[in-house]
Design brief:
Blueprint: H1 12-39, H2 49-60, H3 70-86, H4 93-109, H5 113-141, H6 155-242, H7 247-276, H8 295-304, E1 309-314, H9 322-342, E2 349-355, E3 359-366, H10 378-389, E4 393-398, E5 404-411, H11 412-415
Parallel strand pairs: 1-2
Antiparallel strand pairs: 2-3, 3-5, 4-5
Helix pairs in contact: 1-2, 1-4, 2-3, 2-4, 3-4, 3-5, 4-6, 5-6, 6-7, 6-9, 8-9, 9-10
Amino acid sequence: MPDSPFTRTPTERDLRQDLLLAGVMLVGGVISAGLSTVAGLYGKAQAPMWTALVLVLAVSAPLALRRRHPAVVAVFVALAMFVGVTLRVPEMYVTNISMFIALYTVGAWMNARKAATLVRIGIIAGMFIWLLFVMYRDAINEAGKADMAAGLFSPYIAMMMLQLLLNVLYFGGAYYFGERSWQAAAQRHTLEGRTRELEAEREVTAAQAVALDRVRIARELHDVVAHHVSVMGVQAGAARLVAEQDPAEAKRMLAGIEDASREAIHDFRQLLETLRAPGDALGDDAPSTFGLEDIERLVQSSRDAGLPTDYAVIGEPVPVSSTVGVNLYRIAQEALTNARRHAGVGATADVRVRYEADALELEVVNTGRAIGVLRPGLGQLGMRERALASGGTIELVPRPQGGFRVRASVPLTSAFESRKSLHPTPRHSNSRDSKRDEKESVR
């Protein structure tokens, strides 16, 4: 939406100040009229004192309305000044001040800017035309005097040039300061508008940050709880089944449950530490951050939970940002958790990390029961969000022969902090059986 045009509206305080100004000018004008009459400002040709009082009232009273009707006030004061000087009314000081204020107000407060310019130019042009006419008339009247022949810069000519210069400064100053006042008010208005917009944006940003933190915390809790509780549940069930026939195996499974519980407590403690820390604690340097090197331990944990899982790293590993590392770790964790929970008895899993020429790819494939209809849940939503946060893409698709495939791909420009020499290997088919020949790089 374009910004609305700037307009100035006087406040109640402004109107009270205008009324006070008119009163001060009236008092000062009465004093000036009395002193000018006594001093004989125009000599014997000056008008009587009562005309000076009328002129003072005519130029001071309209100032009470100068911000409400600036153009009307300026034109009225200009006409009063013209009549007063023409009739040689003995008062010029308050009249000149009132004319300056009225002309300034047109530039500073008149919202119709084209009309304000025309009003000021019209008044100034009229005053200068009248001044030149008076100078010409006086020059004709003084032509017979001896001092007129004293040279180009005779006393009379010098006086006329001085008056002309003073009028240029007088009217030019009123025009300039009025225009500057309007521009300053417009700049303040723009600055205040931008300040309000920034405050509104800051409130929106703060609300978005809170919502984002909630989503990220929920995602971290879901990953930790789903993984560790799933492992403990599977191992506890298996230990119960073999407790009488194979006590040693049951003890091993119970030890796995103990390890999984310790890891869960450790992860929860780290997550709580990030929540207590100031700033963006769930960012790149968060203490709960895992990395690609932790996926191997994740695979071993999956094996201990009863899901046979293979692990392979294809290509030459290179450093990646901690954000990408933790996101791919969590994607692998969620994929293996879903495999244990939904794949069924006899299922296996295969985890591959591929360092290619232009991308880093994580693929988790599991066998098991066929999936007819894919039902999106919080786990799948979290994996998609993590892939998107890393600047990559993700595929979550059931396999026709049974099981599920999760494949996340992150471009090198998003994944790598520094580029080292790469030895890319050709991409193979997506099926688990066709990739067995890639395991020469297993860690």
